[in-house]
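Notes from hallway chat w/ T.B., transcribed later so I don't forget. T.B. wanted the structure written out for a chain they're using in a teaching module, and asked if we could keep both sequence and structure tokens in one place. Agreed to drop them here.
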Amino acid sequence: MQNYSLDDRYIKDLDPAKHEFAITTNDVKVFYGDNEAVHGVSLPFERYKITALIGASGSGKSTFLRSLNRMNDNIEGSRVTGEIMYRGLDINSNNIDVYEMRKHIGMVFQRPNPFAKSIYDNITFAPKRFGEKRKEVLDEMVETSLKQAALWDQVKDNLNQSGLALSGGQQQRLCIARAIAMKPDVLLMDEPASALDPISTSTIEDTMMQLKDKYTIIIVTHNMQQAARISDYTAFFYSGQAIEFDETRKIFTRPKIKATDDYVSGHFG
């Protein structure tokens, strides 16, 4: 395998005085047993921007994304090294309360996974678990979250309906509403539209564009058109490495590395 070194000159040009970062990673590696699936990824994620992680299947992008809120902890034999800095804390350290951290760094998965509960209870499940019992607060949380996920007008008269009765696109927006009910700073999205039809995909993309006013979004996508349409920055993953990172328009028009050019132009992957 060819060894690439991410050209960090652009990253250094992102002056912290001008760019506020929600998360930065330094030399993050992910191991499954003896297999090193992610090789030393160092990336900055600017606040209130959308960053797309692109690359072929098996390139490590979803594995890296899951490391950003410790989802790899749930996989037996996995190990993550390196720094993942959030608000001055390394969330990869042993003394971090993972459940508390996930209130700030939420996640939406590839396939919609609403709970077998009502729409209302899907959204209030986590807040109740963390001690919120006031009905007026929970009601406001449900309405605000559903509005931000562009679902309120469709379900406001049926909040006691099961989340499983919604269409696929509606279920995914319910999962987005459930994630943002905790008012996280960062929203991780792993192929959130890959299982949806084109109309639902467009709605999800519109929702993400509106959400970035309030949240930092990091999305894994195989859809090059989607990455080009919605993201501000793009990182290209290749064989477990982030080999190029830049503003999205530059990645898609003037990539510096041939492997990136080949991928975004459809020549491989």
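Follow-up for T.B.: The first strand starts at residue 21 and ends at 32. Might be a good example for the class.
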